[in-house]
Input
Amino acid sequence: MNDFISAIAEKNLEKGIEAIQKASAENLDMKLYFKLIIQKFRVAIILRYAPKLKSEMAGDLSEGT
Output
């Protein structure tokens, strides 16, 4: 999952597709995989644009990752 997020941050389409293919080949639940990715993006966006919420989100970060 972190490989996919890194690929997006790096704008590396090939790396992102490889991460998805790897997850699929390992028979991961793809619905859950993408839910977790969305959750991580949500936290990253909040931390980027509202850094004052970092202490309030500490629980989300420890529970979600």
